[in-house]
User: Fold ATP-binding cassette sub-family B member 6 from Cryptolaemus montrouzieri.
Amino acid sequence: MFDLLKEDQEVIDAPGAGPIVVKRGTVEFNNVSFGYLPEKLILKNVTFTVPSGKTIALVGPSGSGKSTIIRLLFRFYDVETGNILVDGQNIKTVTQDSLRSAIGVVPQDTVLFNNSIRYNIKYGRLTATDADIIEAARGADIHDKILTFVDAYDTQVGERGLRLSGGEKQRVAIARTLLKAPQIVLLDEATSALDTQTERNIQESLNRMCANRTTIIVAHRLSTIIHADEILVLQDGEIMERGKHEHLIGQDGIYASMWRQQLDK
Ligand code: ADP
Ligand code: MG
Assistant:
């Protein structure tokens, strides 16, 4: 059932109800509470739904639990309280492989394999052709210096992945996700290590990829998420505010004050 995730949607024949369309890629957090250590809760009763193909944004101060939500969905840790569903299935009941093949994540701190750039990009889709890899690299604005590594990968197996700067690693992770084009995309401050111009160059390919996929985006700069279908404002592991950008700036709350602060800069 879960490996059908590759399809955007599927028509199934429901007994007595005729054909119904099942959307793929829905994400649900139901009353999730979580702590890395038993004595300290990091997420408190977090509930939200990302409908298939929609984008939600997570914002909030550093340490509020945004990355923890991403890590839980990718199952770096298991939740004991509440549950996380993908397409209605508890992620604890599906294999890591099928979960991770449906989800692409650009983590906040990218760790690459100790291998060539090409290997690291291709890890998103092992059957990719050279042309696919180069296209993904371009989409991530990987400049010629790194592309040379890609082109010369056969002789470059070594520590390339480890020798890159933070921003270069981030671009490799973005290229990997572009190549994988997964059903569900998780972007955790995916462009935070990049300069403004590079960020702009990449934003377009990210937007294109996310347009009809289920997306969770953690953003520091609010201007990048104003079009999200829903914005969740976290503080100390709790969702304090939620809604669309226009709604939230009209309220006298955390989001409106974050927005004003960023406008002032
Ligand atoms: P955000 O992404 O919103 O900045 P995180 O989800 O990364 O916040 O972290 C939330 C809280 O969990 C922070 O207080 C952080 O110190 C703590 N934390 C993160 N990872 C771990 C870990 N592996 N062990 C213990 N505490 C952690
Ligand atoms: Mg974070």
Notes: The first strand starts at residue 9 and ends at 14. DSSP finds ten helices and twelve strands in the chain. The pocket of adenosine-5'-diphosphate (ligand 1) is lined by residues 36-37, 42, 60, 62-68 (CB under 6 Å).
